[in-house]
Write a structure and sequence with these properties.
This protein is of the alpha/beta class. The chain contains 9 helices and 10 strands. It has 2 domains: 136 residues, Rossmann fold, CATH 3.40.50.620; 118 residues, HUPs (Rossmann fold, 3-Layer(aba) Sandwich), CATH 3.40.50.
Length: 268
Amino acid sequence: MKSIMLHVHKDDGQESRLQVALDIARAMDGHVTCMQAAPYDYMVLGDPYFGVLPPEFRREAEEALAAFRKTIETRMNAEDVPWDWQTVSGMDLDVLVQRSGLADLVVISRRVRQEEGVEPISEAADIAVNARAPVLVVPPKVRSFDCTGTMVVAWNGSPEAAAALRSAMPLLARASDVKILTVGEIDMFFTPEEAARYIGGYGIEPQITHLPHGDDMVSDILMGAAQDMDAKLMVMGAFSHSRVRERLFGGVTQRMLDRTEVPLLMAR
């Protein structure tokens, strides 16, 4: 993971994802690309019939983006990580997805609940599904990323889970402990034992932990287990089939994206 793309946007998740991107870049001897979307031509005045943003408002938006860029550039210049800056015209979701093709990791924020502050972009699910690189979703209260801590893999045996596992190997290889978590008894395309053998090929000995389903939601079981294990990262697949997207993102995946307090790496 040498090329790390950081979503840059003025919101209450910025500091968290910046710190995490820096920590990963240091551990991987990587490079951070600060990706800023400039949605000038997409901003309208409430009613779509008004058309594009008037010139005076566009100037204000440009000035605000420039001022925020200066703030982040000053911060990055004080860090010990190589970096560059890209400002791309378009909405945040589109820019992050389109520019992810030459990134090894895209760092975005988990949705910020109302009591937590100003919300970052809320399309984490769409980015995770459509990005051409693994996506790291960072909770707003996280202030660092320990690449040597415990990491867990939420395993349901799907091809998406396998893709996320492969994408996460550069991070898992640095972990002090790797655990594969399953919930309940379900039919799996890839068994957790197969996942463990794959990880073992990298000289890692993961532990498989089967969690009972009970009456709790799967997402709550996974989040609770990750917190009990003091996990620094959770890895899971991002589902992509449109015909079941609403059901899936209304369930485990969406709840994880909305509520996780542990950084969540997703891929498909």
